[in-house]
């Protein structure tokens, strides 16, 4: 009987010991999961919201202890491009591409970095490595920009149209497409596309400025009816004045410069200098 009791106690002791080890392992696994989750969240914040130069330091330090992590490599590449350190970003993206876990999205991001550096041939070559079945907004936007750089207008139009169909926020694409039309001399087409951009995002100032350029190129020197602040109105009048002067409509340009100076709530140095230069030329 005594042996049975001792045996039972031993079994119970072993069971409790095993349970204790199991519980400790589960707790440690849970802690590791939390740490991994925290690290992933921190990486995401650094890539998208943090100061890009701080993000570069963060990912560079992390890669020092885990150099094979493709997530950290991506984070460094994204952060370098965000920090306008594009040549370094290109190098970092090429490191990502060489990783066995690299994706088509990574290749598209590398193409985007090449575009930022105006390395159009490299951008095109990189996009050519992405299979046609990989259809994303960013891919087609970059394809359109590459086609623009080669003056392949039909291709560019097709790619812009496809990109617009793949996003719920197409304002920037309409603006890019409009600027493409502007460079081709299709001012009416450009005006229409800039209007489309502003219908989707009435705050997009670059589209407002480009719209004024398109109208000015047609010798239409009246500001469009769009939402604008007082400062924006002054800046758009200045843009319109320069467009008029470029087309030798100097008197109209001077009048628009004067309006811009009067409209601006503060001292408008650029417009003042431009008007003074015109008046000095007229005097001389």
At a glance:
77% of the residues lie in helices and 0% in strands.
Global mean pLDDT: 87
Rg from Cα: 30 Å
Major beta-sheet overview? none
Runs in which pLDDT lies below 50 for 5 or more consecutive residues are 4-20, 27-39
Shape: elongated
Secondary structure tally: strands: 0
- What is the rounded distance between the termini? 124 Å
Helices and strands, in N-to-C order?
A: HHHHHHHHHHHHHH
Number of helices: 14
Helix content: over 70%
- Helix vs. strand class: mainly alpha
Strand content: under 5%
Written description of the protein model:
InterPro entries: TPR-like_helical_dom_sf, TPR_rpt. Keywords: Signal, TPR repeat. This is TPR repeat-containing protein. The chain is mainly α and 284 residues long. Among the domains are: 57 residues, no CATH class; 57 residues, no CATH class. It is built from 14 helices and no strands. The longest helix is centred in the first third of the chain and has 47 residues. The chain is elongated, with a radius of gyration of 30 Å. It starts with a helix and ends with a helix.
């Amino acid at each position: 009987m005594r042996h049975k009791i001792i045996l039972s106690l031993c079994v119970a002791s072993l069971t409790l010991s095993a349970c204790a080890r199991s519980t400790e392992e589960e707790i440690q696994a849970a802690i590791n999961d939390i740490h991994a989750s925290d690290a992933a969240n921190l990486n995401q914040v650094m890539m998208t919201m943090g100061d890009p130069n701080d993000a570069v330091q963060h990912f560079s330090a992390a890669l020092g202890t885990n150099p094979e992590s493709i997530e950290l490599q991506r984070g460094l590449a994204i952060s370098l491009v965000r920090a306008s350190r594009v040549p370094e970003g290109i190098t970092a993206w090429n490191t990502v591409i060489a990783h066995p876990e690299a994706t088509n999205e990574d290749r598209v991001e590398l193409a985007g970095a090449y575009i930022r550096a105006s390395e159009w041939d490299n951008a095109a070559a990189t996009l050519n490595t992405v299979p046609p079945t990989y259809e994303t907004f960013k891919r087609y936007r970059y394809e359109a920009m590459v086609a623009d750089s080669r003056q392949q207008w039909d291709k560019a139009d097709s790619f812009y149209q496809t990109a617009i169909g793949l996003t719920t926020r197409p304002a920037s694409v309409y603006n890019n497409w409009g600027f493409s039309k502007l460079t081709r001399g299709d001012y009416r087409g450009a005006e229409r596309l800039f209007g489309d951009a502003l219908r989707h995002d009435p705050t997009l100032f670059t589209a407002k400025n480009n719209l004024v350029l398109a109208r000015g190129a047609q010798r239409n020197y009246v500001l469009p009816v769009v939402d604008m602040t007082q400062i924006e109105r002054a800046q758009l009048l200045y843009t319109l004045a320069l467009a008029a002067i470029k087309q030798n409509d100097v008197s109209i340009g001077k009048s628009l410069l004067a309006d811009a100076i009067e409209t601006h709530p503060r001292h408008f140095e650029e417009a003042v200098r431009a008007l003074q230069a015109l008046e000095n030329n007229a005097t001389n």
